[in-house]
Design brief:
The chain has 18 helices and 18 strands. By secondary structure, the protein is an alpha/beta fold. The chain binds pyridoxal-5'-phosphate. Pyridoxal-5'-phosphate binds next to helix 5. Keywords: Amino-acid biosynthesis, Cytoplasm, One-carbon metabolism, Pyridoxal phosphate, Transferase.
């Protein structure tokens, strides 16, 4: 059957087909990605996309919004159930992305110039929590050594959070690469932030929300937990929740939560009203109702027993992957993981993060290179590789397949070792010619066929 798109725009139709084939025939191990159900995709592609609905439920700036109101009410109700919200808490589902959600919280709770204390970006924090650096090497050398595990940034402000606010960042412990709560407390007492943030993209361990809230309380700061990565694990009951402890919880909806693309903000009622006003008129125009429809369907799926199993299996698969990688003599940051991804420390391996990610991509395994705590290398060529299991688990893969993946990863490293002195471009030319890399890609494709994405 010919689809309307195929008839009217064969070029885009072909690109969609090609991308779907790529996703089907390779292993996506990027921990922030997932594969949505056909129902979520139907909702995202629906007529809700046509409607303007600036404002909140029952008080919009446009007519014809009764049905959007019903949809948003349903999404909020489902979010309240998924995250066991207390009665005194409210929900916003309108932020267009995780970064916008975080910005809306800052706009609601802070004044320009206020200090934010968040996790050091290279240790696994997130850009939307602020980042600046010192381009002048001489000035960098003169940085005041405070004796604390803290980073106060430099003159080059690279994003809106650092342009508007004053980010101070806590580093992980040099011995464990994990949070050092005593140290975070000392930093908080010294810099007196108005907001403390936890959460990030590459911290593989559980965060103790009670300890952070206690620190925030001591200095009268708000505590925001950004659980963009862990949202699905929390909704599935497989991971500790900050709800009821933190003052605000933000999350993306399209990672482990496997819903439409967007964000959810949970906060105490008085704060959510401020956050609603920060979203509109503060930051955004019309909400993306089609994505809210997708989020709503995804939250409906997350309420089913199958999702609980999914979340639990993600953790089991990651733990199996961690064990299998260690058995293949890879070193892991923090020696393992409590959640949906592992970070391999490649600093003692012949090939580092960026080239190794490219080698694996040619072998059919899509990953991303990453910084890691106390990495001596720059972010564009860091020492670590981040590998997640959410998509593999959506495919129905279990522990046995994780062991196979770890074996391919070691094989790829062995194949590439002779090219370790080559430039990135020359190394890639060798990879493209390599029969051994092609063989892994073929085996990956065969495995993917056994576990298709529906
Ligand atoms: C911890 C964290 N916060 C915020 C975001 C930003 O989400 P988005 O890409 O939707 O802006 C991400 C995305 O990776 C994230 O990992």
């Amino acid at each position: 059957m010919t689809t309307p798109l195929q008839k009217t725009d064969a070029k885009v139709f072909r690109l969609i087909q090609k991308e779907e084939k790529r996703q089907q025939e390779t292993l996506s191990m990027i921990p922030s990605e997932n594969w949505f159900s056909p129902s979520v995709r139907e909702a995202v592609g629906s007529v809700f996309s046509h409607k303007y609905a600036e404002g909140n439920i029952g008080s919009r700036y446009y007519e014809g919004t009764d049905i959007v109101d019903e949809l948003e009410t349903l999404a909020i109700d489902r979010a309240k159930k998924a995250f066991n919200l207390l009665r005194s808490w409210g929900v916003n589902v309108q932020a267009l992305s995780g970064s916008s959600a975080n910005l809306a919280v800052y706009l609601a709770l802070l004044q320009p110039g206020d200090t934010i204390l968040a996790m050091y970006l290279p240790d696994g924090g997130h850009l939307s929590h602020g980042w600046s650096f010192e381009p002048d090497a001489k000035k960098r050398e003169k940085e005041v050594k405070s004796g604390l595990l803290v980073y106060t940034g430099g003159s080059k402000k690279v994003n809106i959070t650092s342009l508007l606010y004053n980010p101070v960042q806590y580093k992980t412990d040099p011995d464990t690469s994990q949070f050092n709560y005593k140290e975070i407390e000392k930093i908080a007492l010294k810099y007196k932030p108005k907001l403390i943030i936890t959460g990030g993209t590459a911290y593989p361990r559980i965060i103790n929300h009670r300890k952070i809230k206690a620190i925030a309380k001591k200095i009268g700061a708000f505590y925001m937990a950004d659980v963009a990565h862990e949202a699905g694990l929390i909704a599935g009951g497989a991971f500790p929740s900050p709800v009821g402890i933190a003052d605000v919880v933000t999350m993306t909806t399209h990672k482990t939560l496997r819903s439409g693309r967007g964000a959810i903000i949970l906060a105490k009622q008085d704060l959510i009203e401020k956050i609603n006003r920060a979203i509109l008129p503060g930051l955004q125009g019309g909400p993306h109702n089609h994505n809210i429809a997708g989020i709503c369907v995804g939250l409906g799926e997350a309420a089913k027993p199958a999702f609980k199993k999914y979340a639990a299996q993600i953790i089991k698969n990651t733990s199996a992957l961690a064990d299998a990688l260690k058995a293949q003599e890879f070193k892991l940051v923090t020696d393992g993981s409590d959640k949906h991804f592992v970070l391999i420390d490649l600093s003692q391996e012949p090939i580092l993060g960026r080239p190794f990610a490219r080698i694996l991509a040619h072998a059919g395994i899509t990953t991303n290179y990453s910084t890691m705590p106390w990495d001596a290398r720059p972010p564009r060529n860091p020492s670590a590789l981040r590998l997640g299991t959410p998509v593999l688990t959506t495919r129905g893969m279990k522990e046995k397949e994780m062991a196979q993946v770890a074996q391919w990863i070691r094989e790829a490293m062995n194949i590439a070792e002779p090219w370790k002195e080559l430039s990135f471009e020359k190394l890639e030319q060798e990879v493209i010619k390599s029969k051994d890399v092609k063989q892994i890609a073929k085996e990956v494709k065969d495995l993917c066929k056994k576990f298709p994405l529906h």
